[in-house]
Amino acid sequence: MKNNSRKVISNQLKRNTKLLYRLKKNYQNDFTPIISKSTLKVYEQIKNYYKQEVPIILDNGCGTGSSSLWLAKQNPNTAVFGIDHTNKFTSTYPYKNIIFAQVEISQLWRLLWEKKIHIFKAYLLYPNPWPKSKHLTKRWHAHPAFKYLTCIADSLEIRTNWEIYALEARDSLEFMTGNKTVLSKFYPKTSISLHEDKYMRSGHDLFKLMSSKKRSVRLTII
Ligand SMILES: C[S@@+](CC[C@H](N)C(=O)[O-])C[C@H]1O[C@@H](n2cnc3c(N)ncnc32)[C@H](O)[C@@H]1O
């Protein structure tokens, strides 16, 4: 069955000219959101697994959580946290190593960073592209909390169907971590999330970014 999801349409035809300026600002300035009770609760859960040395996977902006299910199945010895600020999570999940939480992810990134908790692998699968040029800072890679994600995650994977988003995210990842990021166009045989499925069926180009590191050195100065 073929889908007809529209490709990203934008008034921005190349990387945003304000990106570097924004990254420098984000790097220099602290970001201190008010931490809600739900964020604290999921932080406690993550901390418990962390103390027991269970590798933690964060599926950020997981939507219904089909990707979280896939990750839990593929990685049975980890704890997979499917995080979204909406509450559309699937109600049936046959794996014990999965926890869904309705949380604002920028708060969680900041708190985990503050508490020095490391995440084995973090995913941002098909984040909202915010294609209008003026919405640059709404894209995760230009958001003031993104530096915390790059710091806490030993490995980070981003997938998108908008090439400009991928190019900007690579710049941001390399800026924040000082490490090389691998960007590739990819052709999945099966989809791991609802959005990936929709975009595959609609014949969109798909892009994957992989950033791995030992530890971020850059963020220690803020
Ligand atoms: C385009 S959907 C992608 C969903 C899923 N990852 C997929 O690939 O099918 C983006 C998701 O990010 C979530 N999201 C956006 N901003 C968020 C935030 N600040 N905190 C938590 N979730 C957020 C949205 O609710 C939405 O479910």
Q: Into which percentage range does the β-strand content fall?
A: 15-25%
CATH fold-level assignment: Rossmann fold
Distinct ligands, ions and cofactors found in the model: S-adenosylmethionine
Known CATH architecture: 3-Layer(aba) Sandwich
Give the tally of β-strands.
Answer: 7
Low-confidence stretches: 216-222
Largest sheet: 7 strands, mixed
Question: Domains counted in the coordinates: how many?
Answer: 1
Summarize the structure.
This protein has helices spanning 19-28, 37-51, 66-74, 105-114, 146-152, 163-177, 194-201; strands spanning 56-60, 79-84, 98-102, 121-125, 155-160, 181-186, 206-212. With 222 residues, it is an alpha/beta fold.
Please outline the helices and strands.
Layout: H1 19-28, H2 37-51, E1 56-60, H3 66-74, E2 79-84, E3 98-102, H4 105-114, E4 121-125, H5 146-152, E5 155-160, H6 163-177, E6 181-186, H7 194-201, E7 206-212
Parallel strand pairs: 1-2, 1-4, 2-3, 4-5
Antiparallel strand pairs: 5-7, 6-7
This protein binds S-adenosylmethionine.
Would you kindly provide a written description of the structure presented here, covering whatever features stand out?
With 222 residues, this protein is α/β, with parallel strands linked by helices. The longest helix has 15 residues, at 37-51. 33% of the residues lie in helices and 18% in strands. Helix 5 links the parallel strand 4 and strand 5 (155-160). The termini are far apart. The protein binds S-adenosylmethionine. S-adenosylmethionine is lined by residues 61-63, 67, 84-86, 104-106, 125-128, 193-196.
